[in-house]
Amino acid sequence: RMLVPALLILLFCLRGHAGLSPHFLQQPDDLVALLGEEARLPCALGEYWGLVQWTKDGLALGGERDLPGWSRYWISGNAASGQHDLYIKPVELEDQASYECQATQAGLRSRPAQLHVLVPPEAPQVLGGPCVSLVAGVPANLTCRSHGDARPTPELLWFRDGIRLDGTTFHQTLPKEGTTGSVESILSLTPSSHDDGATLVCRARSQALPSGKDTAITLSLQYPPVVTLSAEPQTVLEGETVTFLCQATAQPPVTGYRWAKGGSPVLGARGPMLEVVADASFLTEPVSCEVSNAVGSANRSTALDVQFGPVLQARPEPLSVDVGEDASFSCAWRGNPLPRVTWSRSGDAQVLASGPTLRLPSVGPEDAGDYVCRAEPGLSGLGGGAAEARLTVNAPPIVTALHSAPAFLRGPARLQCLVFASPAPDAVVWSWDEGFLAAGSQGRFLVETFPAPEGRGGQGTALISVLHISGTQESDFSRGFNCSARNRLGEAGTQVSLGRRDLLPTVRIVAGVAAAAMTLLMVIIGVTLCCWHHGKVSASFPKQKNLVRIPGSSDGSSSQGPEEEETGSGEDRGPIVHKEHSDLVLDEEGALESKDPTNGYYKVRGVSPPTSPDSCMTPHQVKSPGIFNLPQ
Q: Which terms in the GO cellular component ontology are assigned (predicted)?
């Protein structure tokens, strides 16, 4: 008996000396097996035909291949080729241990292999299931629990329509001795009416059962009304009729309706339908419908698309800016659709800008005036219009000489200038050689300044300043009078000259007209008398002075016609009121009075009738009697 083992040892040593020592061709690895399934731990040896055994947590299972005493364990494989695999079936929790493959006669041990036994989780339980009653809008928690000895601890997940839900919390309870542990997951949600009848799934999943086990529940909700509000038609013209329809679903059923417009109740409106006549207010004041039931109420509102013409909301404000600065006007028009707004100058059709704002950079005096913000009428043809605002450009004064009528020597005179200024001028001053005057009187001079009847739009204050001269002198016609004005932005002025007026041409014209008229009158009278006497020449006209009254002149100068003879008393005078142009106003009528060298009378000699035999008159000299006043 001792001889056989010695021979084997000797053979092993000889082979080892020859380089063919026993060795592992395959060693077992850690293994995970499901409870009730089969587990296989591989082991293969080379150059070894001796005894092979397996150990469990250090305990030898035996050297026989059927492993007596271990009913679920056996060694399988071709022993001649060195295959010695350990099989376990069915795997139980007690099989979870560390296993080694050993070649005892060669003194070889494999690395330890850990067998892990997994236990699939059981189907979880949802508290309150399978039908959970909730109230819409009220936060609620759904609890899912998993009991048992599942290994590893399962993961609990929530799903709806195959989509994983968030908002869960996870809690694990450790098992006490002699009991099993549990895990639970809480889903926090605030259900809505759309969740009524929805199906939620709680799934317990682990490595032992990756697909997991599901438990489904159905939600049963009580909820306040879910409201939909519509208008027909949704887009209307102002003045058209619109019908609103309020529809609702609710659990429990609807108990009442209430209508409002812009937050104010619509009196007398009950039920799911409302009919109104649309106006512009519906665009900004929506119509709302509130529906109630035993759980609560819900409100929906809608605004109509009411189309109406432009309505002015904000007028452009007048502006006053200094020259060189920027000016900006703005105006606001309301309309649907939004009206097209344009800007132009008053009286000019040229469009300067579009939109609610007009910007004028670096304005000058030429930019002063009225600007118009205009909105075009809407689709209905109603509304629209224009609004004006004035731009006043502050600049140095503009001084212009006005027409001043010529004056008579030693008579009154009036010089005028026109001043535009913004801001208003501090003073308007008249100056000449020996002095100046801004207001009041000084010697022969008097200054008056007053507002002009009409100013230039946007150029500020318009003033007319008048310099009155009483008793003009020769020097007044040769000198220049300066009218100047100043404000905070500068000073400007203009020179005004006084024109002279002579009476001599007027007197000559009047005398010529009077002589012609007298001659014509004498011829007419002579013919008339001749016909009246039927050719009788018995009467003779007494010699008399035939005097014609000629209007005198107020300038004190007159002239005598070349064919007139001076007659009459030197004490007679003929006063005249001299009328000038409309812009010349004399302070006194007839301020000048001078002696007419002819005393306003002209002697008219008689006319000798012809001596023809056919004449109606005798050849005696005839003089026309009487004094004739020519019409003025």
A: cell-cell junction; plasma membrane
Q: What kind of fold does domain 310-394 have according to CATH? A: Immunoglobulin-like (2.60.40)
* Predicted structure pTM score: 0.42
Give residue limits of the domains in the chain: 23-118, 121-229+248-272+292-299, 310-394, 403-497
Contacts of residue 159, defined as CB under 8 A and 6 or more positions apart, other chains included, come to 165, 200, 201, 203, 214
CATH superfamily, with its number, for domain 403-497 = Immunoglobulins (2.60.40.10)
Summarised one tens digit per residue, pLDDT across range 307-362 is 888 889 999 999 999 999 999 999 999 888 888 999 999 999 899 999 999 999 99
Q: How far apart are CA 210 and CA 150, in angstroms?
A: 13
Cis peptide before 310 (omega within 30 of 0): no
Q: Is 63 helix (H, G, I), strand (E, B) or coil?
A: coil
Matching fold, domains 310-394 and 403-497: yes
C-alpha of 428 from chain center: 46
Instruction: For domain 121-229+248-272+292-299, give the fold.
Output: Immunoglobulin-like (2.60.40)
pLDDT in tens, 48-98: 888 999 999 999 998 888 999 899 999 998 888 899 999 999 999 899 999
Ordered DSSP codes for 584-616: ---SSTT------TTTTEEE---BPPP--TT-S
CA distance to 85, 118, 438, per residue, from 466 (Å): 135, 120, 10
Residue 195, SS3 per DSSP? helix
Tokens describing residue 96: 């979870």
What would the CATH number be for the domain defined by 23-118?
A: 2.60.40.10
